[in-house]
Amino acid sequence: GKTIVITGASSGIGADTARLLRLQGARVIGVDRNDPMLTLDGFVKADLSDVAGIDAAMKQLPQKIDALCNIAGVPGTAPADLVARVNYLGLRHLVERASDRMGEGGSIVNISSILGAEWPQRLEQHKALAETAGFAAGQAWLAKNPVPQESCYQYFKEALIVWSITQSQQLFLSRGVRMNCVAPGPVFTPILGDFVQMLGQERVEKDAHRMKRPAFSDEVAPVIAFLCGDASRWVSGINLPVDGGLASTYL
Ligand code: NAI
């Protein structure tokens, strides 16, 4: 089976993805700041919010990695600086490090969000940020172009989508490694309540009403697993919504 590294494997969408991929025969190594509550083939306890934590995790991860699922993330109720570091800058750094251990047929799946859907409105900004080389350079760019707390979650999900799409070209052509995003709508996980705080009861209820309910995390996991596996070997550089059609109701 494949060796698959999953960040955020200790909770929510990451835990369900880990469970499913193990059932499908993969060897799953979790990375999270919290201990897992499920059986994994390996686990690295790490703080993915800075370079030191990520580099320390890399030392404990396998030398050959077939797929990487970047599922760890914090909601917009966390300080904007932490949202930037975990959801974007740290993710980029981990991809840079881990992709060195991946070869032809490798796959990277990043979890964006339906809340990142408005990336075309800020494409030039997100492209400029995407072009910064490395964690520190990204932080320096953000110091000059600060992101307000209220919109930081949306902003860094948009930035993640733009970086993933642009970066995927080079990864695929140079290494044969695919990179894609999965964009969930609301999902029943421990951070669902944070979205009510971020967006307000009214917006969340309106969205929930449109789709009748949030997703269950085991409705998102199979899509992540598909993008990890060989069945999607000609799919690269996409952002795939898994929202029960919620985005279509915005038209
Ligand atoms: P969750 O809170 O259940 O899981 C997130 C995991 O990431 C936790 O196990 C947490 O310990 C880990 N994590 C957070 N910061 C970390 C750090 N600095 N170092 C190491 N691990 C860290 O949340 P959920 O809902 O499963 O979220 C997974 C991803 O899905 C996130 O990127 C989130 O933004 C995204 N998402 C969630 C939606 C929802 O409605 N729940 C909707 C759209 C996207």
Structural commentary:
There is one protein chain. The chain is of the alpha/beta class and 251 residues long. It has a single domain, classed as NAD(P)-binding Rossmann-like Domain (Rossmann fold, 3-Layer(aba) Sandwich), CATH 3.40.50.720. The chain contains 9 helices and 9 strands. The protein has helices spanning 12-23, 51-60, 80-99, 123-131, 135-144, 152-175, 192-199, 201-211, 217-228; strands spanning 3-7, 27-32, 42-45, 67-70, 107-111, 178-184, 187-188, 215-216, 239-242. The strands form 2 sheets. It has a 7-stranded parallel β-sheet with strand order 3-2-1-4-5-6-9, sandwiched between helices. The chain is globular, with a radius of gyration of 17 Å. Bound molecules: 1,4-dihydronicotinamide adenine dinucleotide. 1,4-dihydronicotinamide adenine dinucleotide is lined by residues 8, 10-14, 32-34, 46-49, 71-74, 86, 111, 113, 184, 186-187, 189-192, 195.
